[in-house]
Amino acid sequence: MVLIAPSILSADFADLKNELTRLTDAGADMIHLDVMDGNYVPNLTFGPQLVKALRPYSTLPFDVHLMVNNPDAMLSWFSNAGADIITVHAEVCPHLDKTLQTIRNLGAKAGVSLNPATNEDVLKYVLDKVDQILIMTVNPGFGGQNFIENQLEKITRVKQMIAGRDIKIEVDGGINAMTGAEAVAAGADILVAGTAIFSGGDYAKNINALR
Ligand code: DX5
Ligand code: ZN
């Protein structure tokens, strides 16, 4: 069964506590938190203090997506703030093997994300240290962008690489009912969605449509 991870990037930032409750009641499987540093990506969102402040308001796993230049310096911050899954971008981790091991040692699940232009070969030697692979289907930074179709091939290839290991494939960017179905057909297990879940305001209906 496909899991749905709403991204609070598209939520009402002035009402995040209640947005979290609404998403939880609407049947979300996890909460996707997009951390952007205004440097790795051209947008700036929030840090561990907000993650910690929100933590009491949902029992769902917190799926923290770090779009930052120096994730190694921040892993413990987000683990202490209550992140259940911490995903780093392979492009900014010169010692990816070590970074993933550090995330696991902190007690979180370890995720790796690949930008659209990044080859999946970087995953080959870390597969035994990864719990989740996040395939970006847009260039990271903003919600509301169009799904990049050629990433379907990457999803299929990553699914083959995993070869039965207990690793989830997550897709992020431009996911709606149509692109989500394509991603799942290619091998995705988790759909991240911002725009598709928040548009119109009926979160339960939108989550069901994605499922
Ligand atoms: C983009 C973020 C996504 C974003 C997705 O950099 O990583 O999680 O919120 O938004 P939509 O679903 O609107 O493309
Ligand atoms: Zn994300």
Identify the overall geometry.
globular
Order of helices and strands: EHEHEHEHEEHEHEHH
User: Roughly how many Å is the radius of gyration?
Assistant: 16 Å
Per DSSP, what share of the residues sits in E-state strands of 2 or more residues?
15-25%
User: Which stretches of 5+ consecutive residues score pLDDT under 50?
Assistant: none
Helix content: 25-40%
Strand count, sense and closure of the main sheet? 8 strands, parallel
Q: Report, as a whole number of angstroms, the end-to-end distance.
A: 8 Å
Q: With helices defined by DSSP (H or I, 4 residues minimum), what is the helix count?
A: 8
Q: Provide the list of bound ligands, each named once.
A: D-xylitol-5-phosphate, zinc ion
Widest sheet: strand ordering: 1-8-7-6-5-4-3-2
Q: What is the count of β-strands?
A: 8
What is the averaged pLDDT score?
Answer: 98
Q: Output the structural class.
A: alpha/beta
